[in-house]
Amino acid sequence: MATIKQIAKMANVSVATVSNVLNGRAGAAGPEKASEIIEIAKSLNYTANVFARRLQQGKSNCIGVITEDLTVFNTPYIVDGIDSKCKENGYEMILENMRFFQRFGIDFSNIEAQKSLCLKHISSLLSKQVEGIIYIANHCREISYIPDELNVKFAYAYCYSSNKKHASVLMDDEKAGYEITKILVSKGHTKIGVICGPLFSYHTQKRLSGYQGALFDSGILYNAKNVRYGNWKKDDGYVYAKELYESGCTAIFAFNDLMAGGAEDWFRDNNIEIGKTVPIFGFDDREVSRFCSPQISTAALPLFDIGKKSAELIMNSDSESYCESFLLPCSIIERASSEGN
Amino acid sequence: MATIKQIAKMANVSVATVSNVLNGRAGAAGPEKASEIIEIAKSLNYTANVFARRLQQGKSNCIGVITEDLTVFNTPYIVDGIDSKCKENGYEMILENMRFFQRFGIDFSNIEAQKSLCLKHISSLLSKQVEGIIYIANHCREISYIPDELNVKFAYAYCYSSNKKHASVLMDDEKAGYEITKILVSKGHTKIGVICGPLFSYHTQKRLSGYQGALFDSGILYNAKNVRYGNWKKDDGYVYAKELYESGCTAIFAFNDLMAGGAEDWFRDNNIEIGKTVPIFGFDDREVSRFCSPQISTAALPLFDIGKKSAELIMNSDSESYCESFLLPCSIIERASSEGN
DNA sequence: GTGAAAGCGCTAACAC
DNA sequence: GTGTTAGCGCTTTCAC
Hints:
Chain A contains 14 helices and twelve strands. By secondary structure, chain A is of the alpha/beta class.
């Protein structure tokens, strides 16, 4: 790799002049000297060694990103959002992937193992002098094992923490739950069956709370009998769709697309028209929601924006406004599964 | 951030001693001095500045990864494979995401725009002194715009190049096509309908060639009438499944899971038993293949291994054995859609 | 056992 | 306009 020194020698000038010219400092050299330097640099395929530059400037222009698992569907989009924002501001993103899903599956109970892995990644990032760290979870929940004497900014994406020194960026599950329910009510439905995830899930609680709020605002009594708790699987959708329909529900709101797809299957198997007669909503805007027939109405998660916002917090915030929690809106997408009035 | 200098001052020793102790050089200091140094370092939350270290060692221990688009399904797994291998060998992976899909959709025709973007990312990586670069494509094809006077190793993952100085790592589409066809033949089928992607696609050509090879080896005449060219969409599967079945085919081999899902839909709509009567195979092992009922038999792509192998090539290969092309095997997964004999 | 010093590539303050 | 120089944090050689 060519260095500034080599160029200086070849051009018969000092390194300072080369540095100045290459950094576009106007009038740093006579015009013909300047272009000679630039020519030499080009011919040598010169690119400045960023490590040397960072060392001397005492600023890394790096932000660290710790992903619980890069292969889980939400994560690449969030990373993409962070990366875009970094590019915009001349920052570099350093990725550390913990491979939780590969290691632990969907079992998030082994906190100690998670913690020890995470601390290793944090210290690796710290040695790269990152100016801030963003932690991306696969599944929204409280993260409790991040030390707070880290002397860099820290933000949680798709999760949160009780640590008041750290910020978090989440989607607004409750609002989306509210909006979807309102749509269903506006189509004349009052008995809206809900297929939740597990009761302890943050997503379940928030979306359900939005559902309840919308019913309340519409003057409809909340009935716990219209609510079932599944485990995010397609089969749960199938089973509970049957139960809810048979107990009189006329619309289905499943808390993810997989269960909504299962619900569709049951209605199709029983020759009940999906859409106009029985509208169905899912959640997440996963690929399957477009794959099913009819295509499933759903809520698209603001993943890119979550990433972008987290990065903004690291890069732009003063410490005052920092330690907040931000809720970004989902976009409700109506498709054939909720068509008609 | 604490430095070696501060520690040296606090411990009343020189930086050299601190460096030696912290790097575990035995006998670099008296035992009680050594533990004092270690204590101080710990209390200061010291982590060595990797930029300084890299600068002084003249070795970055970094490899660059350029992704066409991180949000396309194949990419995170390949990245994961690269990252794992890097970790193993003490390397850091630097990611550059070009966002092709976000920018161009599935149109790969604007070569100039791709090239100019790509060159920018290459030069960014070069300035980080990477020891090699891996290029990850979304869709397998020939990549022609990488300069070959880069003086770092270069590997193509999920794509290839005619550049003889560069290596490439791909999955073995042909072999998978062969194996799936053989399975179908072994179940007694001789008229096996194929729903390909577009004719110009590398995947189409290789998989089809495997199909032809298997027929040939089984003494079955290849019949072009049993082959349809779709566009990877579910609807293509639906339409061509009908055509193929009605023209006498008794098994379907679709070149991706989406089209296989479409095929399933047509058979289900027409009350034809999928599996025992008409076996169906997809390709890719996407999420939808497990989502469909019956679950779709398919070929799982060796994405993680492609990443891992690429990284190995960068890190371990001598220049001799380097410039090869590697084909990694897919894993055939039999599910309900090809059940029975 | 411990330390002084050079040097990695770069930038910036300051001289000339 | 151009050059000299110090120094970023670290490792390593060589004295003592």
